Amino acid sequence: MIFPLLAIAEEIVISPAYLPEGRVLDLTYNLPLDPYFCDNNPELCKKIDIERLPKFDMTPRATNGQWILFWTLQVLDIYSTSEALHYDCIKEVNPLFTETPSDFRLVATKGLLLVPGLLYNDYWTEVTKEELDSTNMFYVAVVGNNFRLLNKAKRECNKIN
Fold first, then answer.
1. Distance (Å, rounded) from C-alpha 149 to C-alpha 143?
2. 114: which strand partners?
3. Under a CB-based contact definition with an 8 Å cutoff, are residues 82 and 103 in contact?
4. How far is CA 100 from CA 81, 122, 138, 153, in A?
5. Is residue 90 domain-resident?
6. 43-71: per-residue pLDDT in tens?
7. Which residues of 28-63 are buried (b: 16+ CB within 10 A; e: fewer)?
8. Domain count of the chain?
9. Helices (H) and strands (E) in the chain, counts
10. I need a labelling partner for 66 at 20 to 30 A (CA). Which of 73, 74, 108, 159 fits?
């Protein structure tokens, strides 16, 4: 007959309940600190050869706030472009689109260009703060221009549909 290991295994727990009456388990570790230990024991303290250590590039990752701003600007870009294209005097100048792309095409193109590029090899984890700041500043200008044109079209142009 074979017994499962759980049936015969015992759990060892360090608890005061396992100690004889009146005994206290002292788990403190009092290490004497000697600030001159390496001076007094040079054979025990070998100097670290800094030249042999690998050099790591430490670049801070982009923050969650920067990513939230990035995706907010992408949504605002699509929204402002879509709304502006409802006026007869506005045409899309992006060479990836026709002069009047549909809302689906705007979302699909932006998604097909951004998402795979960021997901490939987890590139989104390697984007630096400076790179995302530059991208966000560019899109602030794009979205600002889109809303400026949209407001101008509302004042001076006819709505198509």
1. 10
2. none
3. yes
4. 10, 34, 23, 15
5. yes
6. 777 776 677 777 777 778 888 899 999 99
7. eeeeeeeeeeeeeeeeeeeeeeeeeeeeeeeeeebe
8. 1
9. 5, 0
10. 108
Examine residue 84 and state whether it is found in any structural domain, yes or no. Answer: yes
Query: Using alpha carbons only, how large is the chain's radius of gyration in Å?
Result: 32
Q: Which two tokens stand for residue 47?
A: 């100097």
Look up residue 107 and give its two tokens.
Answer: 């979302």
Backbone angles phi, psi at 142, to 5 degrees: -65, -50
- Joined tokens for residue 157: 């142009």
Domain that holds residue 127: 64-156
**Residue 23, domain member (yes or no):** no
Phi, psi dihedrals of residue 159, rounded to the nearest 5°: -80, 135
User: Could you tell me how many residues make up the chain?
Assistant: 161
In tens, the pLDDT along 81-125 reads: 989 988 888 888 888 777 778 888 888 888 888 888 777 767 778
The DSSP result for 3-40, as a single string, is --HHHH-------GGGSPTT--------PPP-TTHHHH
